[in-house]
Amino acid sequence: MRFLIVFLCLLSMPLAAQTLRLGVLSYQDRPDLVYRYQPVVQELNQRLQNIEITLTVADYEAIQTGIESHQYDLLIVDPTLYLWIRSRDSLSSVMATVFRSRNGESTSRYGGVVVVRADRATQISFTALDQYRIVTPSTQFWGTYWAQYYELFSRGLPVPSAQQVTSLGTSQATVTAILEGNADVGFLRTGQLERLIDRGVVSSGQLQVLNEQRLANYPYHTSTRLAPEWPVIALSHVDINAVRAITSALLNLSPENSTIATAGISGFVPAVDYLVVEKAMRELRLAPYDFEDQLNIVVIIKTYLIGILALVLVFLLLLIGLFTFKRQSNALAKAVAKEQKLRKEQDRHLQQLGYLFASSPSVVYALNPTTLRAHFVSANCMTLFGISAEEILATSDWWINSIHEADRAKVIAQMQRWRESGYHGSLQHTYCMQTPNGWIWVEDILNGIRNEDHVVMDLVGAHTNVSARKEANGKLELAASVFENAREGIAITDVNGCILEINGAFTRITGYKRNEIIGKNPRILNSGRQPASFYENMWQQILSLGFWEGEIWNRRKDGVIYAQYLTIAAVYDGQRKVSHYISLFSDITQQKENEQQLAHIAYFDALTGLPNRSNLTRRLVSEMQTADGTNQRFALGFLDLDGFKEINDTFGHDMGDLLLVEVAKRMRATANKSATVARFGGDEFVILLQQQDDEIEAERAYQQLLSAIGEPFRINNIDLHVSASIGITFFPQAKEIDADQLIRQADQAMYQAKIKGRNRLCVFNIDQESNLIEQHRLLEEIQLGLERDQFSLFYQPKVNMKTGEVFGYEALIRWLHPVRGCLAPGQFLPYVYQQPLELQLGEWVLRTALEQLHQWRLQGYQQSISINLAGFQLQQPDFTQRLADALVGYPDDVAKGLELEILETSAIEDLAHVSGVINSCKELGIQISLDDFGTGYSTLSHLKELSVDMLKIDHGFVRNMLESEDDLAIVKGVIGFADAFHLKVIAEGVETQAHADMLLALGCELGQGYLISRPIPPHDVLNWYGRWTNQTKPSH
Amino acid sequence: MLRISLVVTLLLALLIGVYGRAMWQQTREPVVISAHPWPGYESLFLAEEFDWLPEGVILQRSNNATESIERLRQGVVDVAALTLDEALRLNEQGTPLKIIVVMDESIGADVVVAQPHVAGLEELAGMRIALEQSAVSSIVLENLLRKANLTQDQVHLILRTPDQQNYGWSFGNYDLAITYEPYATTLMQHGGKRLFDSRQFPGMIYDVLVVRDDLSWYQQMVVSDIVAAHFRALDYIRVNREDALRRIAAWRAVSYSDTQAIFSGLYLPGLDSNRDLLSPDGPMATAIDWIQSHLLQHSLPTTERDRIFDDQFLPVKP
C-alpha cells in the first residue's frame, strides 16, 4: 500500500528539468540530416514539460562508440543496431516504432528492394545475384542489405560476397550507379524507390524490381518479407517518468503534421516485437549473435549423468552374462558328445538285423510298446515304400503319423484294446499309410515279443501293400456314394416303370420315403398339369432316342406342386434291350420364382413400383394396335417435375427419391383406374389415358394431375412445393407414327410447357416442330450474347422543347451482334416474348441503367434514365423484390433518377397487381410513366387507379398528326387528359421542327425523337450533352 | 568359422539390398495434400510460399471441402484439411483416417443474426430461422435452442444457404439467420444484430488435418514434416503478422483490413493446445460424441473414437 502511494506521488510529481540526447542513425556521418529530424524534435520539445531533447545524427560506428561511452539517452536506429544495443544495455526499451504512409495506406513494417535497370531485367536473375556487381547505400542496415541477404539465404539461393558489394552512402548514388551502368544490381530499403521517383531522380519505367512480393495494400514495392520499422529506444538510465512522457508525446504526433513529413516518416505507433529480425540475425550469425555454440564436456556429463550411469551398468551386466553363458555351454557340449557315441553303436546293431529282412515282400519293423517309437525298420522299405530306414527311425512317432488321419483314431483304439488284453495274439488292421510316393493301403500285422518273464519288450510288425485290392473296391463304393449323395433326385425303375431304387435326394424333393415308393410307379408324382399328350410324346422320344429331358410340374407327397428339371434315360442290357430306366431330376421351383422376379424388375421401376420405360413402350405398342383396329383415340402425357433438381441439390438425393415415391402415389391415386402411369427415369413420368375421344376431357384429366402435384408434399417434416409441366399428344394422327415418335411429341410439348413458364399443360402441335428448332437456336444465341456482353444500352435524350433543357434519357437496348451488326430490339425481343430469357434481359437492362446512373452521379451529372418494362417482367410476383435487390448498394439519388416505362396495354391487363407495383416503386423513389399512351383504350377510372407520373404519347400518333386529323385528335386528347390529371406528358417520335412547333402549340413541351437526337451510345452521351447545351444556350 | 562369417555377410548384404531397394522405392512416393481456401488452412499455403513443405509434397488447391473429401476417398491425396464432422463422416463411410492436427476452432465466426425486432433469446419460440443444411449449422442451432430452452418443434426452420439468406432478409422473411463470415457482416449491414455466436459454446466447431491410415513409414515421416511446417507457418503469422496477412490477402484478392477481420473470429491452436485437443479425454472427444449422436448413423465405440486421434505427428518440443 505504501509502495502504491509512493508510486502515485511519483506519477503526479512534476519532472525535474533535464536534457536528453537523441541519436538518429544515418548512412553516413552527415550533419545536414539534422535539419530533417529537427522539426520532429522541436515538436516534441513543445509538447514536453521540463524535458529538452537535443538531436545528433550519426553513422553506425559513431552510434556504437557513443553507446559504449554513454553519450546517448534516446535513439532512433535500424533494428539490427537496436538488437546490438539491447545485447549491451539489456534494460533499454523500445518506446515506439516508426510508421510510414503512402496513398492512404500506412504500415509499420519495411523490407528490402532489389532493383536493376529495366532493360537488363531479363538478363539478371534473382536466383544468381552472386554474379553481379551490387551497390547499396549501406551494407550495415537491415533494409538496404540484410533483408535482401536474408531473403536469398532463407530460400537457399547464393548470397553475395563482400567483394561484390559497394556501399555508396545514399539511395540516390545507388540508383545513379545502376542507371549509368557502373553497377548491375541495387539494394534499397522499401520506400526509397518511390521517394526517388516522386522527386524525379528516376522515372518509374527505368528500373525494375526483382522478386517482387505480392502483398495486399502494401504501399511500396518490396523484394523481401517484411520486418518491423525503426524503433525509438530509451536507454536504461533514462528516468521512467521521462520515458512515459516522451512515449505519450511520440504516439500523439499526428500524421497530418507536416513537421514529421520532413523526416520522411508519418508518425509513431506503440512498440512492435522485433523477434522477426532477431530470429533472422541468429540464423545469419550477425553481431551480437555471431558466437559459435560450443560443446562443453562438463555440460554434457551434467545433463546426461543418469543416462551415462545406466549405460555403464548395462555394459557390466552384459559382460557378466557372457561369461556365465560360455561356462554352461561347454558342459552341455561334453554331455551331448557322450550320448551320440552310444546311439551310433546301437544303430549299427539294428542295421545289421535289418539286412535279414531285406528280401521280405513286407516291411518288418519293431516298435517300443510304450512310446510306439520305431527302433528298427527293415531296409526293404526303400524299395517297397520309397523311404529309407534312417529317415523312418529319425522320425519320432513315424508309425502313428504315417497313418491317414481318417484311420488313425480307429487304429489307436484297436491298439489300445490289444494292449489292455496283454498283447494277446496278433493285431491285424488295414489302413491308409503315407509314403513319399503318396498314400498307399497297407495291411499291418503286429505281434508282441516277450522276454523270459513273458513281458512284452517289443512289438514287431509287418506292412504289406494292398493298394491294388483296395482300389477295385473303392470304385464301387464311389458309384454308390455318388448315387446317395447326388443333389438330384434319382430313381431306377424296371422296364415296366416299377421303382426299384431311389436315393436320398429323391426323398428330400418328393417327400416319399424309400419304403413308401419302392415297387410303385412314378405316376403317383403326376401333378395333372401336363396333358396326357405330353407324356405320350415323352415316352415316344425315350423309346426312339433312349432319353428325354425337360421341365415338368410334379406333386409332392404333401400335395405341393413344384417344378423340376427331369432327365430320363434308358439302360440297355447285353442284347441291346432296355433293362432299366433311370430318371434324374432337380427342383427348379426357386429358379422359376427368380425368373419371375427378374421379369418384374425388367418391367417395373424399383423406386416407385410404377411400370418403367420398356413396359410403357410395350403397352403403348399394343394400345396403338388396338386403337388402329377400333378407331378409338387415346392420349399420351409426358410429365416432368419443375424444380426437382433444386430439391435434390438442397435436400439431397434421398429426399428427392422420397418425393418421387410420393408423387407417384399421388398420381396413381388421382389418375383414372384404366390410366397407365409410368416412370421414365429421373423426374419424368408418362401417363397414358385410354379411350380419350374428347380432347378437352383428356386435358382436364391431366390438369387434375397438375393440381394434385401442386399441393405441398410433407416429407421428413419439411413441406416441399413442386409443380409439373405436361406435354400431351393424341393417337391416332393423320400421319403414320410409331411409339417412339409419339413419346417424343409429348416430350416436345412438355418442353413447350416449360418454356411457357412451367406448371402448365401444352398440347403438341405439328407446326411447332420446325418453328421450335429455329426459336430455340435464336434463344441460345441471345443467351450466349448475354454471357459474352454483346448487349448495350443506347440513350435517347428527352428535352423540354421550349427551353432546350435536357431532363432525361430513355434507355434502349441494342444487340451488337458479331455477324449481323447492331440489332434494334424489334429484331430479337419478339423471340423472347414471355420467356425466362425476357426476364434475364430485363434484369440486365435494369442493372446496366442503374450502374450508368451511378457513374453519371459520380461525375456530377444529374439527368434521369427511363427503362422499358416488359409486361411479363412486370407480372412476376417477385418483381418489387428484384427491383429492391438491384438497388442495394446504390445511394438514394440513383433510385430517384430511375424511371420505369410501363406499356399502357400491359398495365390494364392486370390492373390490381400493376397498381400495387407502382405504389411500391413510388416508395423506393422511382418515377413511373405510361408508355405508348393512346393505344390501350385506358379509361378515366384506370388512370385514376394507376398513380403514374407521366404519359408518353405513342410515336405513331405524333408522326402522323400533321397529316391525319384522327391522330391529331388523339394527341390533343392525351394532352388534355394529362392536364386534367395533373400529369406530365411527353411526345415520342418528334422528327421534324414542324412536329415540335405543333406540339408546343398544343401545350406539350416535352419531347424526344430524331429531331433532337437518335439514341446515343453510352460513351457519347456526355459529349452530346456538351454540344447540345452549347448550341441551345444562345437562344435564351 | 571363416565360411560361416562369409555366409552371414552375404546374407546381410542380400537383406540390405532387398529391403533397401523397397525403402528407396517408398521414398519416391509423393505425399499429396488437399485444402480449399479457408483462413484456418492458410498456414499450409504460407508454408508452400516459403518453401517450408518437405520435398516431394504436393499441395493441391481444391475449390471446396467436397472436392477434398472425394480426392481423399479415392486415395488420390493422402492428407486433407476438413471440418471435424466431415472427417468423422468420411471415416464412418469406410475411409480409415486419423486426425493429426487441429487447424482452427470457430470462436465467433459462426453467428446467429437476428432481425431488429427480436429482443433476446427468451422470445425465440415460434420464430422463423433460416439456416443451411450442414453439420455446422446444426451444431449452432442445437446450442441456440439449448440456450433458449426450446426444442426444434417450437421454431420454424427454413433452409437457405448463407449466400441466399440476404435475399429474403430485407423483406423480413425470417427472424433469425444462422450464418458465418463474410455473410454475417452483410446481414448486420442490413439491420441485423448479433444474437448468438460460436464463442458462447466453445469446443464444438473445429477444422482438422486428417491423414489416410494406410501410409508407408516413409510417407508418415513426410507427414510429420508437413505438420512441423504448419506450426512454423503459424509461428510466422504470430511474429510477422502483417507480412503474413498481406500475403494471404494478396492471393485471396481481398483487402488487408478485411483479412484482419476474418482472422479475428478464429482460434488457431498452437502446439501445446493441439496436444490437449488431441488427447482422448480432451474437448474434441466431447465434440465428436456430440456429432456422432446427432449427425452420424452409427457411433464409434469409445476405443475406436480414441483411435481416430493421433498426436504422433506433432513435432517434439525442442
UniProtKB/TrEMBL annotation, chain B:
**Where is this protein chiefly located?**
periplasm
Q: Where in the cell is it found?
A: Periplasm
Entry keyword set: Signal
Q: Which Pfam families match?
A: NMT1_2 (PF13379)
Task: Please provide one cellular component term from the Gene Ontology annotations of this protein.
Answer: periplasmic space
Protein family: Belongs to the bacterial solute-binding protein SsuA/TauA family.
Q: Which PANTHER family does UniProt cross-reference here?
A: ALIPHATIC SULFONATES-BINDING PROTEIN-RELATED, TAURINE-BINDING PERIPLASMIC PROTEIN
Write down what this protein is called. Answer: Nitrate ABC transporter substrate-binding protein
Whose protein is this, by species?
A: Maribrevibacterium harenarium
